[in-house]
TrEMBL record, chain A:
Residues 18-249, 269-514 form the ABC transporter domain. One of its GO terms (molecular function) is ATP binding. Keywords: ATP-binding, Nucleotide-binding, Sugar transport, Transport. The keyword Nucleotide-binding applies. SMART domains: AAA (SM00382). InterPro entries: AAA+_ATPase, ABC_carbohydrate_import_ATPase, ABC_transporter-like_ATP-bd, ABC_transporter-like_CS, P-loop_NTPase. This is Simple sugar transport system ATP-binding protein.
From TrEMBL, chain B:
It is found in: Cell membrane. It comes from the Bacteria. It is a multi-pass membrane protein. Keywords: Cell membrane, Membrane, Sugar transport, Transmembrane, Transmembrane helix, Transport. PANTHER family: ABC TRANSPORTER, PERMEASE PROTEIN (PTHR47089), GUANOSINE ABC TRANSPORTER PERMEASE PROTEIN NUPP (PTHR47089:SF1). This is Simple sugar transport system permease protein. It comes from Kaistia dalseonensis. It holds the Pfam family BPD_transp_2. The chain crosses the membrane at residues 16-37, 63-81, 93-111, 117-138, 197-215, 245-266, 278-306, 326-345. InterPro entries: ABC_transp_permease (IPR001851). CDD domains: TM_PBP1_transp_TpRbsC_like.
Automatic annotation (TrEMBL), chain C:
The keyword Repeat does not apply. It is a multi-pass membrane protein. The chain crosses the membrane at residues 6-28, 40-57, 63-85, 97-121, 141-158, 188-207, 239-259, 265-283. It comes from Kaistia dalseonensis. Pfam families: BPD_transp_2. It is found in: Cell membrane. InterPro entries: ABC_transp_permease. The keyword Glycoprotein does not apply. This is Simple sugar transport system permease protein. Keywords: Cell membrane, Membrane, Sugar transport, Transmembrane, Transmembrane helix, Transport.
Length: 530, 361, 306
């Protein structure tokens, strides 16, 4: 759907609401921001584009007062201002919606919002105000709900309402649609339109070029901490924007070998159901899926719809009720633990790098041992570890996956996100596993590393392995998957050939496998554009 | 201007070695100041405390005798703390070991000899293990916080020991003193060196070497470290947290039990209402001061045994309370913990002070 | 005074120090700090309270000294565990060992000295009512302070903005920091409050409960208070009930010892500790309930990125 529509969006005229001049931020000797200039006008949606690590978050934190610049100054309506803290930013009229929500799970919506506002009114008066604002901007909320019980989309609404109650003149949004279905994202764009119509400016951080082209008036592009370009995103092609962000043309993935047909099933999931392991988790309902040799199956879905629980069930961190719920190369594995499943030829890469897939305070060689202690690599003899062997293996993985590291065997925590991810994927692919299950393979990873990882996944599949990819990133899903399934509220849809499904269909399935919860927003959209 | 902590990119190898030394130095300086303020000659006090016990052979033997149970227990605790299991009830497990190991010599006074002593040792270990298994099961099965349960069980064990020593096992010919009968030499650990160094010193050496091998060379030690640092990653590696909880409890309970029976079948020579002046708690400090490393624990154990000796000396020579030692030990642990943070962090001076209008009400 | 009246009265007295210490710890834990040093803070509170009361002859001075001593001890914990972000479990144990040693050292001079009697409240007519008279209107002043404190803590946590900030710090310190609240300051103040309460609880022991100083007179009450906080699932109201229950157990076993029920006294003395374990097991086995109530950041260190 074309959320905000038809006509060209004109950048509003007028003097800058906020202006950053020569902002530089040093972390030790590392320049996260290098002499950045940025100017945002009232009523515009200003995109801040850049890869992970380009310095977007640092710049935003400086504008919001969470970080102090090493050099440079900020002008608010032409006046030089210091923004020593987030509360100072809020007093100026700057609101921020975080990518990872800054909400308090155990508190109610009202309490959460009260925390961000200066102490001035009773909670019941605040609750009434919340209801008023949420109705006004099409963001339905119950002020007395406890955050834990809300969906991700609802939580974002809380964040937005929290900002709106302070009548901001500048709203900063950090990757707001990364947690939304395409339809929810359209609703969000309508809200943003209502805001800008009142003269509020929006600083919109995103790496989703299509949506930036759709809604933003102006774009500033960062690379390696520097502003590399400013442009009107509607006039540029997505490819052009991408190459500005990355600094080079991104080489396309190659999967010249076609998907082999009628190969044997290597991973088979049969009516897998699991109750929620704890109150904040999602139960899995009757999941069935086959992954054949040679193919990549992608599982799309919004975070928190049971992907984590599903990964744990497939990896064996959580055992299934019956042995036949999960089969690896034809052998029932539902009641086997992680190690036994690895011995059957399966390998796993979890979403969380630090503290799940890797131990940050252990060296890479020790982290190799974490998943490969019992997989026939001869890394130990009668329980005694062969440290030479683990170091050699770590080095081999680092070399073949281009893991950049400061010393020969550093602690995992000292690696950048992209390098650690390459290491973790490489650690498993190095085994040539028959089945690879990987969750969010390129989450928070720069474009170069992402390309390496995706290519490796394709190559592994084409060599005869079955690869299952769980990802929130629809672009990624479509880029590498042969078949696509959608996970929503613990249910998994049928896996369809990637070429035959549209994003629109996937989006609807993400929102609850076809439930008609969007009627409200649809009407609003029509009203707005007619 | 204010001082804050800043994360180091990689942990500091220098501080790993330096932090205990720094902590000891800071403790000594603090002690020096405290003595000076209380008008006690600080040089004499420190001499009495830390040098004098090393000047006579008998007191060095005495020092080793005190270090033995402390090191044994601390080695066991290091397994627990590495896997983030907070067993602070070694004092109770020690009592349980002393009780279980004393069953034979008290009930069958005629049984004697190396076999009997071996059996006593085994029973002591099993007693400590069994007692440590209680909080382990409560944690695994019912999710009960082990810090609280182990500590509660110290009180229970000490009361039970008190009951046994005063009640059923009281020596009928002991003029109504609340002790068991005195053990015969054939029910005690043999002396292997000097006048009073018993076989238990060999146990310590074995325990230190075995612990070093287990933690640094084997997959078991790896599992313990991984599960302690990150239970989630441990589960992903295929390691069972519950098994590890049970295992570390059994190791530490067993070693504490061994320490208990070694005390009873050694320096004490009978079962009393109390068999330990707090070795189980001192061992906690030793475990941390030794950086949870067996060799570190060996050195730290000797140092804290020295402070016990010094404390006794200071009581006589300076009229200081025996509690001074405990204060010193507690202070030392504070300094160790604070200094340890320099392994992962460094101090940084920030000029600008963040203002918090939201809080300044 | 009837026997029953006497028992009920002493149960309240036995519950009071537990309630003080546990209320303080509850606030600290709501802010996300697990301070296992309650026992040590109670011990220094007890000895300093007794010493001050003994020197001035005024129980009020004793109470204030107990509070001050508890706060100093808590401050030490705060510096090591919050500023130096040391492991909170280990730091708490250090505080207990240090506090017990220090209290014994200070207390050497006061062993065997009788304390100053703290008068009970006496309201004409009301205090003379049968049964409820002494129980409701004739307790010592500390009891009323403890009850007021329980209400005050509830009101602070759930009705004030500062209490909301404190809970938010315990629930998600990263978000609280992002909103501009000082996690360190909030936690440090909460820990100091915990120390003040534990110190007051300790002072109550040496001033009222057994008006004298004996070494290790806290006898594990600090640890029981810690268990009580879990037992009460971090709610002040349940804490009052829990403290009375534990007070009842410790008083009833004392009476059982006095009457001589044929069970060795050591076994009766074990009762409060065993009951603590049993209560902890009963409450902890329901993992779902516990995970909903436990402050999410409890015991987790916080260092902001600068």
């Amino acid at each position: 759907m074309d959320g905000t529509g038809g006509g060209r969006r004109q950048r509003p005229q007028g003097t800058a609401l906020v202006e950053a001049r020569g902002i530089t931020k040093l972390f030790g000797s590392f320049k996260a921001n290098d002499d950045i200039n940025l100017s945002i006008r009232p009523g515009e949606i200003h995109a801040l584009l850049g890869e992970n690590g380009a310095g977007k978050s640092t710049l935003v934190k400086i504008l919001y007062g969470s970080l102090q610049p090493s050099e440079g100054e900020i002008l608010w309506k032409g006046q030089k201002v210091g923004i020593p803290s987030p509360s100072a930013a809020r007093r100026l009229g700057i609101g921020m919606v975080f990518q990872h929500f800054s909400l308090f799970d155990a508190l109610t919506v009202t309490e959460n919002i009260a925390l961000a506002l200066p102490d001035r009114k009773s909670r019941s008066a605040l609750a009434r105000e919340i209801e008023k604002v949420s109705a006004e901007f099409g963001l339905p909320l119950n002020p007395n709900s406890v955050i834990v019980d809300l969906s991700v989309g609802e939580r974002q609404r809380v964040e937005i309402v929290r900002c709106l109650l302070q009548n901001p003149e500048l709203l900063i949004m950090d990757e707001p649609t990364s947690v939304l279905t395409p339809q929810e994202a359209d609703d969000l764009f309508l809200t943003l339109d209502k805001l800008t119509a009142r003269g509020c400016a929006v600083l919109y951080i995103s790496h989703r070029l299509e949506e930036v082209k759709q809604i933003c008036h102006h774009a500033t592009i960062l690379r390696h901490g520097k502003v590399v370009a400013e442009c009107d995103p509607q006039k540029e092609s997505a490819a052009k924007l991408a190459s500005l962000m990355v600094g080079a043309e991104i080489h396309a993935l190659s999967s010249e070998v076609p998907v082999p047909e009628n190969t044997r099933t290597r991973l088979s999931i049969r009516s897998l159901s699991l109750p929620e392991p704890h109150p904040f988790a999602v139960a899995l309902h009757d999941i069935s899926l086959d992954v054949r040799a040679g193919e990549i199956v992608g599982i799309a879905g919004i975070a928190g719809n049971g992907q984590g629980e599903f990964f744990d069930a497939v990896s064996g961190e959580q055992l299934a009720a019956t042995a036949t719920a999960i089969n690896i190369d034809g052998k029932p594995a539902g009641r086997l633990g992680v190690t036994a499943r690895r011995r059957l030829g399966a390998a796993f890469v979890p979403e969380e790098r630090i503290g799940h897939g890797a131990v940050p305070r252990l060296r890479l060689s020790d982290n190799v041992l974490l998943t490969r202690h019992s997989t026939g690599d001869q890394l130990m003899r009668v329980g005694v570890i062969d440290f030479e062997g683990t170091r050699t293996l770590a080095e081999r993985v680092s070399r073949s996956f281009d893991v950049r590291k400061a010393s020969s065997d550093p602690e995992a925590g000292s690696l950048s996100g992209g390098n650690l991810q390459k290491f973790m994927v490489g650690r498993e692919i190095d085994r040539q596993p028959g089945v690879l299950v990987v969750s969010q393979p390129t989450w928070g990873v720069d474009a170069g590393a992402a390309a390496v990882i995706r290519q490796a996944l394709i190559d592994l599949a084409r060599s005869g392995s079955a690869v299952l990819v769980i990802s929130q990133d629809l672009d990624e899903i479509f880029e590498i998957s042969d078949r696509v399934a959608v996970m929503s509220r613990g249910y998994l849809s049928e896996a369809l050939p990637a070429k035959s499904v549209t994003r629109e269909a996937i989006g609807l399935m993400m929102a609850g496998l076809g439930e008609g919860r969007r009627s409200n927003g649809e009407e609003l959209a029509h009203a707005h554009h007619s | 201007m204010r001082i804050i902590l800043e994360r180091r990119p990689d942990h500091s190898q220098t501080m790993v070695l330096l932090s205990p030394v720094l902590a000891i130095a800071l403790s000594l300086v603090s002690f020096f100041i405290i003595f000076a303020v209380s008008k006690i000659d600080p040089f004499q006090a420190l001499y009495v405390y830390f040098i004098e016990p090393l000047t006579a052979l008998w007191s060095i033997e005495d020092l080793l005798a005190k270090a033995i149970p402390i090191i044994l227990i601390a080695i066991g605790l290091s397994f627990c703390y590495q896997s983030a299991v907070w067993n602070i009830g070694a004092e109770g497990q020690l009592a349980a070991g002393a009780l279980a190991g004393s069953i034979i010599p008290v009930l069958q006074p005629t049984w004697q000899g190396p076999l009997v002593v071996t059996a006593m040792m085994v029973m002591g270990v099993l007693g400590g293990m069994a007692y440590a298994a209680i909080p382990a099961v409560l944690k695994i099965r019912f999710n009960a916080n082990e810090t609280l349960t182990t500590l509660m069980l110290v009180y229970v064990a000490n009361l039970f020991l008190d009951y046994v020593a005063r009640g059923p096992w009281r020596d009928p010919g002991g003029y109504n003193f609340p002790n068991s009968r005195a053990f015969d030499e054939g029910q005690m650990l043999p002396i292997v060196a000097g006048d009073s160094i018993r076989l238990s010193i060999v146990f310590v050496i074995i325990a230190v070497i075995a612990a070093w091998f287990l933690t640094s060379k084997t997959i078991t030690g790896f599992k313990i470290r991984v599960l302690g640092m990150s239970p989630r990653a441990g589960a992903f590696g295929g390691f069972s947290r519950n098994k590890m909880v049970m295992m570390t409890f059994l190791i530490s309970g067993g070693l504490a039990g061994l320490a208990g029976i070694c005390e009873v079948a050694g320096p004490i020579g009978q079962l009393r209402t109390t068999v330990s002046p707090g070795y189980g708690f001192t061992a906690i400090i030793v475990a941390f001061l030794g950086r949870l490393h067996p060799f570190g624990i060996l050195i730290a154990g000797l140092l804290l045994a020295l402070s016990y000796m010094g404390g006794e000396g200071a009581q006589v020579a300076l009229g200081l309370s025996d509690q001074t030692t405990q204060v010193f030990q507690g202070m030392l642990l504070f300094y160790v913990l604070a200094c340890d943070s320099f392994i992962y962090y460094r101090l940084k001076i920030v000029r600008q002070r963040a203002v918090d209008p939201a809080l300044a009400r | 005074m009837t026997m029953l009246e006497g028992i009920l009265l002493t149960i309240v007295t036995a519950a009071t120090p537990l309630l003080f210490a546990a209320l303080g710890e509850l606030v600290a834990e709501r802010a996300g700090v697990l301070n296992l040093g309650v026992e040590g803070m109670m011990a220094v509170g007890a000895v300093c309270g007794f010493a001050a009361c003994n020197m001035t002859g005024m129980p009020l001075m004793g109470a204030l000294a107990g509070i001050a001593a508890g706060m100093l001890a808590a401050g030490l914990f705060g510096v090591v565990a919050l500023f130096f972000v040391a492991n909170q479990n280990a730091t708490g144990v250090a505080l207990t060992l240090f506090g017990l040693g220090l209290s014994a050292l200070i207390g050497d001079a006061f062993v065997g000295i009788p304390g100053v009697a703290v008068p009970r409240v006496n309201i004409p007519y009301l205090s003379d009512l049968p049964v409820v008279g002494r129980l409701v209107f004739g307790e010592d002043p500390f009891v009323y302070v403890a009850i007021a404190l329980a209400i005050g803590v509830w009101w602070f946590l759930f009705k004030t903005r500062a209490g909301l900030i404190l809970r938010s710090v315990g629930d998600n310190h990263n978000s609280a920091h992002a909103l501009g609240f000082s996690v360190f300051r909030t936690r440090f103040l909460a820990v100091l409050f915990g120390g003040a309460c534990a110190g007051l609880g300790g002072a109550y022991l040496s001033l009222v409960y057994t008006p004298q100083w004996t070494q290790a007179m806290t006898a594990g009450r600090g640890w029981i208070a810690l268990a009580l906080v879990v037992f009460a699932s971090w709610l002040p109201g349940r804490l009052v009930i829990g403290a009375l229950l534990f007070g009842a157990v410790s008083i009833l076993q004392l009476h059982a010892q006095a009457i001589g029920v044929g069970i060795p006294s050591q076994f009766l003395s074990m009762l409060p500790y065993i009951v603590t374990i049993v209560a902890l097991v009963l409450i902890s086995r329901n993992r779902a309930l516990l995970s909903v109530n436990t402050p999410a950041c409890l015991g987790r260190p916080f260092v902001p990125d600068v």
